[in-house]
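GTPase Era, Epibacterium ulvae. Tokens?
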Amino acid sequence: MTTRAGFIALIGEPNAGKSTLTNYMVGAKVSIVTHKVQTTRARIRGVALEGDAQLVFVDTPGLFQPRRRLDRAMVAAAWGGAADADVIVLMVEAHRGVTEGVERILEGLGDIGQGRTVALAINKIDKVQAEDLLALTKDLNERYSFAETFMISAERGHGVDALREWLAGEVPEGPWLYPEDQIADLPMRMIAAEITREKLTLRLHQELPYQLTVETENWEERKDGSAKIDQVIYVVRDGHKGIVLGKRGETIKAISQAARLELEEFLDRRIHLFLQIKVRPNWLEESERYSEMGLDFKDGN
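Tokens:
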């Protein structure tokens, strides 16, 4: 039996649906998905099987115009993920079309795409008319020579099977890179932190978009098969602490419960989750925080 395996980088603007597609392909939630832009910080690798091929998805942060150190590190991680991949899939939102951001990515692909297979996936096709979709497909293929174009809805799964089958034929021949039952190569501590951060992002909406991070400080396996997880939520100001706590601690309680339930479902066992909030005014400038997120502090310069 000839096996195949390779890395596939999903690139695109924030909110293009890269995390949703990763999770659909893998069949499990390995990447944080929220309505907010720029929620993916680290390059999360989800592993999917298609016939004799193992597809390793590198879900990169959205490519955008960086302003701060964290932004710059995220953009560097995204291009780094593309540069290391065997196949690159550019995701474009059908209803947004060719934005300035997409134009910048196409320019970047001029360098990074050399000698690589690059496919186009037009996502959220249910949001536009057929004629607009065809015009966008034509426009994008005139701007860049894509190996293949797919029209998909990552959320609903439309067109995703065809994309996965095509990718299985494009990755190089070779042994599988991960054990058959492994779905992500992120340490569980980081996945646990991402799950809690997602719940914070969903709950707090516009109040604290990017000024908090979560770290798993301690993970203790218990004899009864359960696990005790201690996490710290870092915020930059005292006032933010109150927002996360909420009235009579209701917000943090709800976040903790939602994160715990998802962790239990993900790990298929009982979880005891304990959250603490700490104020660290300069966490955005601390190299250790970047390492915890799988980003390179130096890339933010």
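The chain has two domains: 4-170, 188-300.
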